[in-house]
Specification:
By secondary structure, this protein is α/β, with parallel strands linked by helices. It folds into two domains: about 1-140, 2-Layer Sandwich (Nucleotidyltransferase, domain 5); about 190-375, Nucleotidyltransferase, domain 5. The chain contains 16 helices and 13 strands. It has helices at about 55-70, 100-110, 120-130, 150-155, 160-165, 175-190, 245-250, 255-265, 270-275, 280-285, 290-315, 325-330, 330-340, 340-345, 350-355, 375-390; strands at about 1-10, 15-20, 20-30, 40-45, 45-50, 80-85, 100, 135-140, 200-205, 210-215, 215-220, 320-325, 370. The chain has an eight-stranded mixed β-sheet, with helices on both faces. It has a five-stranded mixed β-sheet with strand order 11-10-9-12-13, sandwiched between helices. Strand 2 (about 15-20) and strand 3 (about 20-30) form a beta hairpin. It is globular and about 60 Å long. It starts with a strand and ends with a helix. The model has no long low-confidence stretch (mean pLDDT about 95).
Length: about 400
């Protein structure tokens, strides 16, 4: 099967073309709406780059189609079986991938208040591709879907129940496609059915989240109603005392919108030491920069706290999995996170394996296995899209 996977973001569009779930080509359009835009396509290690402005997602998507046509992948659209779309917020309405209909589109539109930065862009991609390919099957895969089977006691906040129900206030969780993908990869590595395993997955990138997976089901996750809650991130604060919001409003000239921006774009690693790039932070920390060291220690400490909480929630943990840009590439961060966990939860990292970049990085004495697994959300979307197709054939 030939499947195009589309990730339409607020200012960029990324896509991959899969044949039988093997990536054949990838394309990206960046800086949509800015004076200068960048587009790029990679096919069989051959890269072509273009520079031009894109006023809208429609123009950007036309460029994506043009690039795919240029390399011959869409010259015959009959060879394309489906398009899989990443959609950030599906709330409780969608707990699995779904074939896109007009009703599905309107439901996604109704959820925009829960994801005002993401769902409109996701919708733009869906609607443009439906216009260009009206007869083609299109599937929505939701970031939040994997977490929608969380028990109520984990999903709800201790606010007045009727208020939460009326305004749909609850923990939705994000990065679900990534957590789901690496959990399934871990089960393959371990040679066990995912339903037999209890896992803690750590998606550590510019956005970061932790998930407790019991018998293949997400039972808790660190991100909440929005991606702001949970771990300290590149520019997001993560967990803070909610009264800080009111305190800032009362004692500064900041508006609620200003404070929201501060928490989402000026906090986290960047807020503490001036940069969100973990590579720079580690380098500056090694050179004696105390603020960089503080940011690194805060980041690691908060990940450790979630590991501890999820060990208790799960009761038994078979493996901890690192993924995401930091999780996959920052050996020092992985080592710092695991430091001291041998005594508390019998988890011991093999420092040599960790440094050389092995996939399995636990010591032989560790009772909990440790893995570094590269995430591939696009492949997971392709797989889920293909599953929808085969189920309806």
């Amino acid at each position: 099967m030939n499947i195009l996977v589309l990730n339409s973001g607020s200012s960029s569009i990324k896509c991959q073309y899969f044949t039988d779930c093997k990536s054949v080509a990838s394309a990206v359009v960046e800086s949509i709406g800015e004076e200068v835009g960048l587009s790029k396509i990679i096919l069989e290690n051959i890269e072509r780059t273009y520079t031009q402005a894109f006023a809208s997602h429609h123009e950007a998507l036309q460029m994506v189609i043009a690039m795919l046509n240029e390399v011959g992948l869409l010259s015959d659209t009959k060879k394309l079986d489906a398009i899989g779309h990443r959609v950030v917020q599906g709330a409780t309405r969608f707990n699995a991938p779904i074939r896109i209909t007009q009703e599905v589109i309107e439901t996604i539109r109704s959820l925009i208040p829960l994801a005002p930065l993401h769902n409109p862009a996701n919708l733009a991609g869906i609607e443009v591709m439906r216009t260009l390919f009206p007869k083609l099957t299109q599937v929505a895969v939701f970031d939040t879907a994997f977490h929608q089977n969380m028990p109520q006691y984990a999903a709800l906040y201790p606010l007045p129940y009727e208020l939460s129900k009326t305004l749909h206030i609850r923990r939705y969780g994000f990065h679900g496609t990534s957590h789901n993908y690496v959990a399934k990869e871990a089960s393959q590595i371990m040679g066990k059915d995912l339903r037999e395993l209890n896992l803690i997955t750590l998606h550590l990138g510019n956005g970061a989240s932790a998930t407790a997976i019991k018998s293949g089901i997400s039972i808790d996750t660190s991100m909440g109603m929005t991606p702001l809650e949970g771990l300290m991130m590149g520019t997001r604060c993560g967990d803070i005392d909610p009264a800080i919001i009111a305190y800032l409003k009362e004692h500064t000239d900041l508006s609620i919108n200003d404070i929201d921006r501060l928490c989402n774009f000026e906090s986290g690693l960047k807020g503490i030491c001036g940069t969100k790039d973990m590579r720079e932070i580690i380098e500056h920390s090694d050179q004696g920069d105390q603020r960089a060291r503080l940011a690194l220690e805060m980041y690691v400490y908060r990940v450790k706290k979630y590991i501890g909480a999820y060990v208790v929630a799960l009761g038994r943990v078979d493996a901890v999995i690192f993924t995401g840009g930091i999780g996959e590439h920052a050996a020092q961060v992985r080592e710092m996170i695991c430091e001291g966990l041998e005594e508390s939860i019998s988890l011991k990292i093999d420092k040599v394996k960790n440094q050389v970049g092995d996939q399995s990085i636990h010591s032989d004495e560790s009772k909990i296995q440790l893995f570094v697994i590269a995430t591939n959300e696009e492949l997971e979307i392709a797989r889920q899209t293909q599953k929808i197709l085969t189920e309806t054939l």
